[in-house]
Amino acid sequence: MTSVDESAAIGRDLPRRDGAAKVRGTAAYAAEAPVADAAHAHPVQAAVARGRITGLDTAAAEALDGVLAVLTPDRAERLADTGNRELAALQDREVAFRGQVVALVVADSSETARHAAALVRVEYERQEHDSELRADRDDLYAPEKVNPDFPTDTVEGDVAAAVAAAEVTVERTYTTAMYHNNPMEPHATTARWDQAEGFLTLWDSTQGVHPARTALAAVFGLDEAKVRVICPYVGGGFGSKGEPHVNTVLAAMAARAVPGRPVRLVLTRQHMFALAGYRTPTIQRCVLAADRDGRLTALAVDVVEQTSRIKEFAEQTGVPARMMYAAANRRTTHRLAALDVPVPSWMRAPGVCPGMFGPEVALDELAERLGLDPIELRIRNEPGTDPDTGKPFSSRNLVGCLREGAARFGWAGRDPRPGVRRSGDWLVGTGVAASTYPVHLMPESTATIRREGDRYVAEIGAADLGTGTWTTLAQIAADALGVPVERVAVRIGDTAYPMATVAGGSSGTATWGSAVVEAARAFRARYGAEPPERAEASGSVRPGSDRWAMHAFGAQFAEARVHLDTGEVRVPRLLGVFAAGRIVNPRTARSQFVGGMTMGLSMALHENSVLDPRTGHVVNHDLAGYHIAAHADVAEVEAHWLDEHDPHVNVLGTKGIGEIGIVGTAAAVSNAVWHACGARVRDLPVTLDKVLPALEERPGR
After folding, report:
1. Would you say the CATH fold of 150-178+279-439+548-696 matches that of 33-128+184-236+242-275?
2. Has 171 been annotated as catalytic?
3. What is the pLDDT at residue 686?
C-alpha cells in the first residue's frame, strides 16, 4: 500500500463529497431536472426483427385525455444529420431490429404516455431476419479497424509452423455471452427548447456532456453554442452512457413537438435491452504453443463477434493478447457478423474484458498440461518490451502483482490437482488470472481555476458516474495550488464549463486531472502565492508521450466451491492486486476495484442476455431474468495495490482504475471452478449444466 502524507491532498482517504446529497435524495438526476410543467414521453417499439411499417393507427392513443402528441415516421421532424442511423429516430418506416422505436407518445403524465403507447397499433411487412452468431458463417468480414482505432489483424512470425513444432499446445474455443449494462439509473433525458432563440437544453444522464452536445447539435443542425447539456450526477453508466443513444434524440424531438413544454423521457429497464447498447458476444479461438519449460513459442487469438446491420461497432477483443506475453509467433484477428440486432457499444473495459477470458483460461490449461504452477507460467513469459509495438513499458508490475497476490491469498502449498480439496459437501478450488488495461490521456480537455473570496474553484465539464470525480478533482486542484483541500470546490457536469472528454477508457482522472494541474500552474504563474480574491486561469491537457507502452496491470485470485450433489457454484473469496500508478484517493479507488471485481464475478456466474434467433428478441430483458451478482453472491472481496511511481504516463502519474478490476476476474473464477471439480468451463457463464458432468464422473458416484 502507498504511504500517505496526511498534510497532502493527493493520497488522502477522503469521503465522497457527493455522498451526503445522494443518501439524502437531494442530488438531482436527469429525470429530476428542475423544470416546470414537464410532459412525458414513452416509445413504441417494433415487434419484428426486420421489415417495414405498413400501417400505424394512433387514433386510440390520441383519444386519451392528457395525450399531447404521437410522433410517427410520417409526422416527426426531419433531422439534419442521419449518418448515424442509431440516432436517426422516426426518419423512415424501415425496421432494422426488434425493439427499434417506431412511434413516440407525449402526454401530461408518464402513466398516460405509457398507456397510450400500448394503444398504438402497428402493422408490418415482415422480412426474413438473421440474428444468430456462429463462427462458421460464410458472410463474416474483417472491419477496417476495431474500437477505437486498432488494426483489425496482426501477424508476426509463423504461428502454424510454431504450433506444429511445439512440445505442448492448447487449441481451444472460448465464448463470452451478450452482456447488457444495467446501471441503477436508467437512461434518461429532460429536454427543453427555447423556440424563439432556437436553443436546446438537455439534462441528460451521460458520461460526457461535451461529446453529447457535439452529437446532438449535428443531429438537429444546430451550432454547438445553441445546445447546453447538464449532468451533475450519473447513477452509473459502465460505458452505456458514453455516447448518446436514441432516447436523447427522441426527448429533444418530443419537446419541439409540444412547444412551451419541457419533456422527460426515461427508458424502462426493458427498453434498455434494445436501445442503450450492449457488449457483443464473442467466440475466441485461442492457440498456445510452448516448450517443456513453459516458454511460449506461439500465441494466437481469432475472434468472431457481431455488429448491427445499421451501424458497425467492432469490439477490440483480440487486442490485449498482442501485448500480454512474450511469444515469437503471434496472430490476432477479428471477424464480424452483421446481424439484424440492436447496435452494440461500450461496456466496462471494452475488448479487454472479454478478450482476456479466452487467453487466461488457455494459459491455465497450458499450465495443467505442463505440470507447472500457473503463476510461474505467466512469470516465465514476461516480455522485456511491448511485444506488439516494441516500445519499452513505462512501468510493468504484473510479476509484482502476482507475487503479492499469491502471498496475500495463501497460494503457497496449493495442490495443483483438481477435485482433491473438500469442505463438507463442497469441493474447493483456487484460480488465478492476470489483468491489464491501457493508459489513456485525451488531449482535448481544459480546466479553469478561480479564486472566489477565500475559496478556490476548479471548473471542467467532467462527469462523475459514482467514481469519485467530485472528490478527486478537488484533491488534485488543492495539491497543485498548495492549499488545503477544504478550500477547493469543484464544478462539473455542464457544457457551461470548459471542455472535457468523455468519462471512458479509465481516462477521466488522468485527463481532467492533468487539465486541472495545468490550470493551477497557470494560476500560480500569473498570480504567485498571494492571488487576489477575484482571479482565474485556464490550462489544457498536453499531449502524452508516444515513446512508451503504457498499461496498468493486476492479478486476480478466486476461491470457488462446487457442491458435490447439486453442482451449485459459490465464490466466497476474490482478491485482486493492482499496479495502477498513483492512487489519488484510496477510498474511491478501492470502491472502483471492488466494483469491477464484483461485476466480473457477475459475468462469470450469472450474466447472459438470451437472444432468441427466431425473433431477434432478448427474452430475459429485465432484472428478474437477466441475473446479476447480488449480496448473497458477493462475500469477501479484497482489493490491494502496489506503490507504483510512473512519471511517464501523465503529470499526475495515474493510470486509471475504473475498468481493470473487471478484467481477468471471470477467467480466475473459471480456473478456480476447474481446480475445485475438474470441469473446464470455456463458455460463460459458469452454470450447473457445465459442471454436473464432471461431478457425475467422480469415482464412487
Report:
1. no
2. no
3. 98
